[in-house]
Design a protein that fits this description.
By secondary structure, the chain is of the alpha+beta class. The strands form two sheets. An eight-stranded antiparallel barrel has the order 2-4-3-10-7-9-8-5, surrounded by four helices. A hairpin with a 4-residue loop joins strand 3 and strand 4. Helix 2 crosses helix 3 and helix 8 packs across helix 9. The mean pLDDT is 88.
Length: 320
């Protein structure tokens, strides 16, 4: 399904689910001024034809965990197998094949900085991995998403859909086995009904509802929309690694986060201290972004670009 095949109802539904992936179809229908049956039918079609998925994911930083971005250079015959092995792990997300299929990048969550050595030992062991680097994510300017979103809804419509804000002053509650079971179910389907979540956890539906709302309010649980950028007309994705003057890194990262083309931006350790993901309509747009928009940002010393050849895993289960 292509961007040209979507009408304003489809695009409005996509944008509504970006605002709140668990918004009731009745509420979305009222905002879009269509029937609830129409919203449900369009949702099923976008899932089947455009690859749209709503995903519940854990924000491990709220639980004191840290994240690393990993780069692996492989021989051409090994990169695909390495990417699949990484995608199968529960502690990885955003696994990409890059640079003509000879490089793999991913994000890994660990319990702390001191677990880096353990992390590296757990990576796939093969002589066909010729180089590897790990960069600690220090702060995030824009959390990962699928890039530019439709702009069909008005501010007033968005306000109706917007969930309660995250309350960072509320301490993150400890996770129980039931929470983990619920998170696994939501990772498969972020819109899983309460009855299904109750069956997965062994809790009552009312307990599931209260616990889900608490995890969302404290920022532990994120309900996000996952849809291939190509389905929205953005056919070219790339990872950017930038070496930026230390005193300018925060300003550059904040500016990147405001760029429509940027779907992720973070400050990292390492020789390149900013990592970002860019989503463009085609190679012409990517060229224009790299040569016209980025040079406007003062403080960038060096830039490395790696096109995304294939996404093996996003925030949820592997795209195998």
């Amino acid at each position: 399904m292509s961007r040209s095949a979507m009408d304003d109802v489809d695009l409005g539904l996509v944008q509504a689910l970006r605002v709140d992936g668990r918004a009731q179809f009745r509420t979305i229908a009222e905002v879009l001024e269509v029937s609830e049956n129409t919203v449900a039918r369009r949702y099923r079609r976008l899932r089947a034809e455009a690859g749209l998925r709503v995903i519940g994911s854990l924000d491990s930083t709220r639980l004191g965990r840290v994240q690393w971005t990993i780069r692996l250079s492989c021989t051409p015959d090994a990169a695909g197998a390495v990417a699949k092995a990484l995608a199968a792990r529960e502690d990885t997300h955003y696994v990409h094949l890059l640079s003509a299929g000879t490089e793999v990048s991913c994000t890994v969550s660990t319990g702390g900085v001191d677990e880096q050595a353990l992390l590296l030992h757990k990576l796939p062991r093969t002589s066909r991995i010729v180089a590897m680097s790990a960069h600690l994510l220090l702060s995030t300017f824009r959390v990962p998403d699928t890039g530019p979103e439709p702009t069909v809804l008005t501010d007033e419509q968005i306000a109706v859909l917007r969930p309660d804000p995250i309350d960072i002053d509320v301490a993150a509650p400890p996770l129980h086995d039931g929470d983990r079971a619920m998170l696994r179910a939501l990772n498969r389907d972020g819109r899983a009904p309460y009855a299904e979540l109750a069956a997965a956890t062994g809790w009552s539906e009312s307990t599931v509802r209260r616990r889900l709302e608490l995890l969302r309010r404290t920022g532990i649980l994120r309900i996000g929309l996952d849809i291939p950028a190509a389905a929205l007309g953005f056919g070219v994705e790339a990872r950017l690694w930038m070496r930026v003057e230390p005193g300018a890194a925060v300003a550059v990262g904040s500016a990147l986060a405001a760029h429509r083309e940027i779907s992720f931006a973070a400050l990292t350790t390492g020789a390149t201290n900013l990592v970002a993901a860019v989503v463009c309509r085609d190679t012409v747009d990517l060229s224009r972004y790299l040569t016209e928009r980025l040079p406007e940002l003062s403080g960038i010393i060096a830039l490395e670009t790696a096109p995304v050849i294939r996404t093996v895993k996003r925030a949820g289960t592997p795209q195998l």
